[in-house]
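User: Hi! I'm working on a homework problem where we have to compare a predicted structure to a textbook description. Could you give me the structure for the chain below?
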Amino acid sequence: MPRLVLLRHGQSQWNLEDRFTGWVDVDLSARGEEEARRGGALIAEAGVELDRAFTSVLTRAIRTTDLALAAADQLWIPLEKDWRLNERHYGALTGLNKAETAQKHGAEQVKIWRRSYDTPPPPLPTDSPYDLSKDRRYAGVDVPAAESLKTTLDRVRPYWEGRIAGALAAGERLLIGAHGNSLRAIVKLLFDVSDEAIVGVEIPTGNPLLIDLDRNLRPTAARYLDAGRAEALPTAP
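Assistant: Happy to help. Predicted structure tokens:
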């Protein structure tokens, strides 16, 4: 039966500084590196064997995936990187301190921008130092100015259906090392979570989520490997 491990990257330097990160390529903090290694150790302790890994094109996710696979003694498996697994784009919030932004715009408004399903933050100004339209890793990509979880799911879905689901259907055991919102998008697809319920779904950093699937890629079982840091899981459809 196909098996899937979802792993949110460890703490990044901007996580540590409480800043909105999105598509900005920020590295892991020392704690984030340790979280990644611990995630890999948990995979090894659970006896989970993997055939392939997927990640985004952002350093914090790539390094988390590499560190976890190394700790699990499976660094040799193929690794595919794709921008569609990037974190959601936080638009004009990018780089801002979260607490200071809440003081300026109000906590309720910032909560809507951060957690609602289909309300994006204000778009990134065209003169922003965080404009990535000329970054060569996005050549040919229409880089968004801001994303909601809905629009994040809209660009994750084709990659899921066109590449990842096929590997799972072939019986491969996969690791996806990515970001809170791109992984929430996958959870929404897998567990058929409603637009309202997905707002309350959180993915903890560095804690592998192990999902067993049937031949139709419907979840039959799911658990976090570190039960002490587990978040509530949606009910399988």
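For your comparison, note the following. Strands lie at 3-8, 52-55, 79-81, 173-178, 209-213, 219-224. The mean pLDDT is 95. Good luck with the assignment!
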